Fold this sequence. Notes:
Layout: E1 2-3, H1 9-20, E2 23-26, H2 27-34, H3 44-62, E3 71-74, H4 81-93, E4 100-104, H5 107-116, H6 126-135, E5 143-147, H7 152-163
Parallel strand pairs: 1-4, 2-3, 4-5
Amino acid sequence: MAGLPGTGKSSIARALASETGGVVFDKDRVRAALFPEPWIEYSQQQDDFCVEILLQAADYLLTAPHVPPFIFIDGRVFAFRYQIERVVNWAMGSDCRVKIIHTISSDETAHRRLEADHHTATNRNYDLYLKLKASFEKIEYPKLTLDTEQSLESSVTRCLSYLRTD
């Protein structure tokens, strides 16, 4: 799941996991579990560390007796090329397919969602959205770009179709 804060990554990931029997690994929840205040720093270094923990957990699930059909990595914007490349390289080494869902919405919708949301990550606000938007690097891998201005049901239907293609 890639996309700026407030564009619907978590809502889509949870709905997809429910529909597919998949698992959602949320970087922000992992950070909150690992780093109590005042050690939460919302740095890129801490984000990278938490994603590495998620990938280790995914490795563990891949050896479990009942492997989930999908593992959704949530909570990371994937604003920088190296972040997506890390997950793609992990997936190739783990013999997994990668399907990137890039959520987008209007600035106004993201702003409204961010103002109304009580998210685990307390740094998540419209200023962060604008900062990340200014530095967001184009995703060069095949992806589904999903405009989350449409209904959740419609978005999930599009995603399911994308996930089921080769």
